[in-house]
Request: fold
Amino acid sequence: MNLDDIKQILDLVREHELAEFELERDGLKVRIRKAGHEVAYVAAPPPAAPGLAPVPASTAPGPLPGTPGPAPADEGDSVNLAVIKSPIVGTFYRSPEPTAAAFVKVGDMVSKGQVLCIIEAMKLMNEIESDCDGEVAAVYVENGKPVQFGDRLFAIKVG
Reply:
């Protein structure tokens, strides 16, 4: 699949006003969502056995410095993480107002459709919802910080 193929898919999505489109071909999976959030499912590698080289950090998503990270997997377990990414540019807020508790924190169980955070863009408050059921494994952004389109917001341990 090349850039022209992707442009054709995007044109079809716009033309037919599709909210979501998914295509899998030759081991490549493309998911397009017009409204909502982008989710990438990543299979985290099992912990390295003693005496083996550690797995590079770039193969699994990691939290920002100073934020709690995903809980380690038990020996032999395969952990699937759903990475919730920012669908827009704006300011990230973990709670509905400054004095309120955060929508979710690391270790909380969440359901599909549950509000995880708010992103303020052009004075509009956009609720970002979970695309899956699971446990919040990591929060990647600090409260009140700016986010860009595609920035990682949360990791949800699925399954």
